[in-house]
Structure formats: C-alpha cells, structure tokens
Amino acid sequence: MKRRICLLLRWPPTVNHYYVNTGRGSKALSANVVAFRAHVQGAVLEQEPGFEPLEGPLNFRAALWPPDRRRRDMDNLWKGTWDALKHARVIEDDQQFKRKAVLWHDEPRSGGQMLLQMSERA
Fold it and tell me: What is the mean pLDDT of residues 13-22?
C-alpha cells in the first residue's frame, strides 16, 4: 500500500547558515538548524500521529511561501529540510526522492511556510 505524509512547516534555515565555527577548524550545526530539526520532529508528531517512515522511491511535492520578497536561491532550502526529515525518521535519505515538484508562491507569508507532501511510488 502506498503511504504518504503531508507537513506544514516553517521556513527552514539555508545551507549558508547550516554550520558555525566552533574554533580550531571544527564546525557544528547552528542553533537555527537544531531548532528547525526539533520543529520538524514536533510537526510530524502533531500533524501525522502514528506515522511510519516512508520507504523505497518517493515522490516529493512542495509549496513554498517565502518570509519576504528578497531574492533567494531555492537550492539552499533543501539541505536543512531533507536532513530534518531524515532526523525525524520520515525518510531514510533524500536519495529516495525520485520525482520532485516545487511551487514557489510570490506572495510571502509572515515567517515563511513550506507545505510538503511525500508519497511512496507505486
């Protein structure tokens, strides 16, 4: 049976702000990334109670409402988003996404939002 999950999430941290230098050349996840991971985990528990991790090849659809009208590189959004989905055990790895579709809305929403739909492929 094909399973799917749908999540409404806040705007993720970009790859440009993913790591912070901790000194002596080492890096750690930024506080924003850690907070976003916790947000995704909480959203999964609240919005999809009793979910089971999605397996095998997946379809991925996203609708995006940016927080403001600044220009953005959409590619910078996915690292934090997909890593948070993996951390929350929604997916095993972003390599599962075989078909991706994204709709970018021009009208911003306060704080930004992402509506994600992931489904197992038949």
Answer: 86
